[in-house]
Amino acid sequence: MVSIQISAGFQYRTAHAVLVTLVIIISNVSCSSGMNSGNTMKDAPSNTVTALAKSPSRIRAAADIGLLAEGGRSTNYLKTPKHFKAGDPLVTYEGPGWESDKIAYRLYLDGRNAIDIFGKRQPESILHRVGRGEDYHTMAHWGMDILKVGHSLGAGGFGILANGEAKQIGPARYFSAEIIENTADRATVRVIHEQSLACGDDIAATYTIDAGERLTRIQVKGACRHAFVAGLVIHPETIRLASTVSSGEWQYVARYGKQTLLSDNLGMALFFKRSTVASLEQDGNDDFIVFKSEESVTYMTGSAWEQEKGGLKNLDAFESWLKTTQTKLNHTQ
């Protein structure tokens, strides 16, 4: 395992790029309607949060949970049944999804808890039709599933630190997913790990994306016996990019290169507050950050695929986006 302490400093290159606006959505575990083990699926009322700024109508954010057993019907709430296992044919793409016009993400609603990426070739909402009779691992008009996750945390998922390595968080008694907001401006999904085996408590997380953005803001709440980590899968043909301590409170670590199922270029990044992180680490699966807190953590993950329409086509453009995003975060948060 390679260990890079926060105080040692990180490498990065300077540049300019696109403006990114971020909004925190904080959810309370005790308020979740997913804690009733008697119901496995229902349409639950949403706790809507008003967007701070309106986006042009052509730009959209969206969230989706599709039920395979009901012909792919979308629902606002899902709770896994008893004895549910990873890979069970319950949800259209194995968990909830959220998207902007630029990128789409899905979360494995099981012990993997990893984030996967749907690369989008068109700035249109796609989640409501993905996994309904098509193979999303095959290129379609809109794009496809582009990331191989394996045993890693994927594109910024959270897990736990165990024996010096980043580990997927593992089994829980139940998992639930609820769409908290689903508007043209913002999409938010809340996921609860009820009685997480590794943590010994309920763990709740919210995933929020705004229209026009690549970044997802993730907040995790709930006491755990292990330190929380967040990571990016390491693929052989990629390079590591990281900021320096002197560049401000908000830092980043990223990977760029041929890491898609098509062997084309994809950039993935984690943004985090330096004061909340104990160290940066690497193991055989992930480039990851270790959080100081074992109860509440907040960070962001973002991705950019070279086939995205009007997107970041090369390493220089991706580095520009990293630096500009970091600068904006340090000026506004």
Written description of the protein model:
- This protein is mainly beta and 333 residues long.
- The chain has a single domain, classed as Beta-galactosidase, Chain A, domain 5, CATH 2.70.98.
- The chain is 5% helix and 39% strand.
- The protein has one helix and 22 strands.
- The chain has a nine-stranded antiparallel sheet with strand order 5-12-13-14-15-22-19-18-17, with helices on one face. A six-stranded antiparallel sheet has the order 1-20-21-16-10-11, with no helix packed on it.
- A hairpin with a 7-residue loop joins strand 17 and strand 18.
- The radius of gyration is 18 Å and the shape is globular.
Biggest sheet statistics: 9 strands, antiparallel
The CATH architecture would be Distorted Sandwich
**H/E element string?**
EEEEEEEEEEEEEEEEEEEEEEH
What's the end-to-end separation, in Å?
A: 32 Å
Shape: globular
Name the average pLDDT.
85
Number of strand elements: 22
Number of helices, counting only DSSP H or I runs of 4 residues or more: 1
Structural class: mainly beta
What percent of residues adopt helix (DSSP H or I)? under 10%
CATH class descriptor = Mainly Beta
How would you write the strand order of the largest sheet? 5-12-13-14-15-22-19-18-17
Strand content: 35-45%
CATH topology: Beta-galactosidase, Chain A, domain 5
Key traits:
333 residues; mainly beta; Beta-galactosidase, Chain A, domain 5; nine-stranded antiparallel β-sheet; six-stranded antiparallel β-sheet; 22 strands; 5% helix; globular; disordered N terminus
